[in-house]
Amino acid sequence: MHAGHEQMFRRRFFISTALSIPVLLYSPFIQGALGFSSPAFPGSTWITPVFAVVVFAYGGIPFLKMAIPELKDRSPGMMTLISMAISVAFLYSVASLFIPGTTPFFWELVTLIDIMLLGHWIEMRSVRAASGALDELARLMPDTAERVTESGDTEEVPVSELQNGDVLLVRPGASVPADGEVVEGASSVDESMITGESRPVDKEPGADVVAGTVNQDGSLRVRVTKTGDETALAGIMRLVEDAQQSKSKTQLLADRASGWLFYAALGVAAITAVAWVIAVGLNIAVLERVVTVLVIACPHALGLAVPLVVAINTSTAARNGMLIRDRIAMEEARNLDTVMFDKTGTLTKGEQGVVGVETAAGWSEEEAFEVAAGVEGDSEHMIARAIRTAADERGVQRASVSNFENLRGLGVKATVGGELVHLGGPNLIEKLGIDRPSSIASFADEAGSNAQTVIYLIQDESEVVAAFALADVIREESRQAIDALHAMDIEVAMLTGDSEDVAKAVSEELGIDQYFAEVLPEEKDTKVEQLQSEGKLVAMVGDGVNDAPALTRADVGIAIGSGTDVAIESGDIILVENNPRDVVRLIKLSKASYRKMQENLVWATGYNVFALPLAAGVLAPIGILLSPAIGAVFMSLSTVIVAINARRLRGVDLS
């Protein structure tokens, strides 16, 4: 809808402006004010009225149509005010062609329409946002599946044809087509987009799998238990759709100001009519006074007061890595009192990293990394990548290895310098039946209490020589962002699908006010509602599919740009860089933008406070009477002031 309105206002603005040029060139007032005269020829006196009528019919009619819903709702706003002004100016100007002693408002009529078209084009362009969240969710589902036949072969069938009880082959790297239970095979499945869990989840016979998740390095045979609308992903899609529809209709400040001006104009016009009839009787002068009041009631500046700030706000945000999809959410950000962050990929990097290492006597950290990185040299498992990255950061060369073998569910082994080396977790220790040195055991216990994963380096199947602690690495920017939010008296909460231990450790390290652990997608949505029910204005910051319902439900949904497409499409505001500090910049910009809107509305409506009484003739007894032409000059000055003030937003300090 916004895109269609944007193109409509844009097209009508340019065409109406082009048609307005002859109106201005042949306007007696413009010629007199600027000291020029346009060429006269037979019929040239009709150029101004004819072109003005065309501009009204083409550029003004959309405002009249959009005023109808406001009038039906008995809530007059900007469209009603514009419609009243251009209708009165049009009818009076046409009538003035046939009534001696009257002055037409044609040039004022066309410029008013042009300015309003420009303002609404700018407005529509800045609020345009395609609601593609549901489409992005749907794309997670594969179109086809490999169904296992009775003979043991496979056949490719559309996902829509799957039924409960079908057995599917899910190859490495493929998406799971339907919710189901593993009946054969072993692998790990990336469920981060659904559950928020940063580590792939091991799957063996009996384990459940969810549609839309991605199989990793092994083949699985899955018996379908849920299809179509019954799947977990479909449930998330319903939550997103419900949350989108539950967004409240927020009335803009400019509309409220327009409503006040509408009633004020009618009131002043009525008083003007009565007062002038009593003073001079019913004549053309009284009609001109009333018309002047009603036309001047709609200042050009009010039509640009908010759209100009919105446009500059949008461009300023973009230069600072923030893309605004929903203007109302951007305005609401100034009032936030709670910011809720997703943990994985938002406060943390969403990838495993080595956060500690302990070695046995006779081994240095450098030697441990040299051997471990060599053993993990060819593996694409995230733990392998974490160890290689840590070794590279320390400038350690990888050892040469041979006879590499993957031990499913246990770890890996290889030969290094003629000796057999194992690398794996607690299950490997138990399998080999060996004891850990006391220093390494203490290190592992402490890491476990902090919800960190421990990987052991074992030599000759008999001696644990090193232990590595891995965890989802916390971003340094997260600490700075949370400190800054606290300085602004904003409470910080955290949502995660991870365990209680992991959530508690991250929360304590970052100084988060409250956290919610082991949260399922539908629970993330309800946690936002829970805070909102307490009277809090909540922003949600996330990057995954599982965050989409919460992003949409929140008063302000902030999506991390490096996250999944569906999270981005569900967010009101997108942070291009994965930097939590941009949330602070966003709130600062929202506050600054709102101040500019208020200032501009004061300038725009202040013009009316000054001009309406003069137009009504309050100072007529002392010879001061505001003519339509002079009123238009004041109106133009008000517009210039509003434009200059809006541009000052570009210099706002977001550091």
TrEMBL record:
Subcellular location as annotated: Cell membrane
Annotated GO MF terms: hydrolase activity
Translocase listed as a keyword: yes
EC top class, as a word: hydrolase
InterPro entries, A to Z: ATPase_P-typ_cyto_dom_N, ATPase_P-typ_P_site, ATPase_P-typ_TM_dom_sf, ATPase_P-typ_transduc_dom_A_sf, ATPase_P-type_domA, HAD-like_sf, HAD_sf, P-typ_ATPase_IB
EC number(s) from the headed UniProt entry: 3.6.3.-
Principal cellular location given in the protein's record: membrane
Domain annotation P-type ATPase A: ranges: 140-241
One Pfam family it belongs to: Hydrolase
Assigned keywords, A-Z: ATP-binding, Cell membrane, Hydrolase, Ion transport, Magnesium, Membrane, Metal-binding, Nucleotide-binding, Phosphoprotein, Translocase, Transmembrane, Transmembrane helix, Transport
Membrane topology term: Multi-pass membrane protein
Highest taxon of source: Archaea
Membrane-spanning parts: 12-34, 46-68, 80-99, 105-122, 260-284, 290-312, 601-620, 626-646
Keyword Cell membrane: yes
Family: Belongs to the cation transport ATPase (P-type) (TC 3.A.3) family. Type IB subfamily.
Protein name, per record: Copper-translocating P-type ATPase
Species annotation: Haloarcula saliterrae
